[in-house]
Write the structure tokens for this entry.
Amino acid sequence: MPIKVLIVEDNPNLRQALRSLIELSGDFICLGDYESALPEIIFEGDGVPDVILMDIDLPGENGISYTRRIKERYPFINILMLTVVEQEDKIIEAIYAGASGYLIKSAIPENILENIRILHKGGSPLTPSIARIIFQNIQQQQGSKKEKVYLSSRESEVLTGLVKGLTYKMIAQKHFISVDTVRSYIRCVYEKLEVHSRSEAIVRAINDRLV
């Protein structure tokens, strides 16, 4: 099935370029493109996107706030944040809002389609510089104390797979379970860790030494 993509980007040239890239590829469908956040978030039927490309600095409501609203109603939608400047505070805030990937706009043209595929398969696309910012933030929070989280052995195995960058399918094959079962365990892990995205779960797992 084609991957359904929605674009939210205020730069008209980049928005059109992204739409053209998606529409010219046979395994993607562009559901629409918008220059700002919509006041009402309603996706129905075939109009529910698999992936949203989200500009972090939208006019009016910013991309972080919009991401948070979308994830509260549709937690299964993957959101890939797009930014011009690497701002540590915004990157971390976007991850905690539920973003599953983060790319610098200058690196987009040559790899955006592959990054969308990675995100759709359960991965978390990050440019090397942004990955470094995230891990530096983890290291800075090593001394923070949180309530002890107790995971089952299977939940720990699934969480370890996420930290290692495995897709849901790879985790399922490794432990001889179905992809749907992996998703079920991940929902339980997210609930216990009080997180909403893969990236946030990885940060919490490493920070609390759960894996």
Remarks:
- The first helix runs from residue 12 to 24.
- Strands lie at 3-8, 28-34, 51-55, 78-83, 101-104.
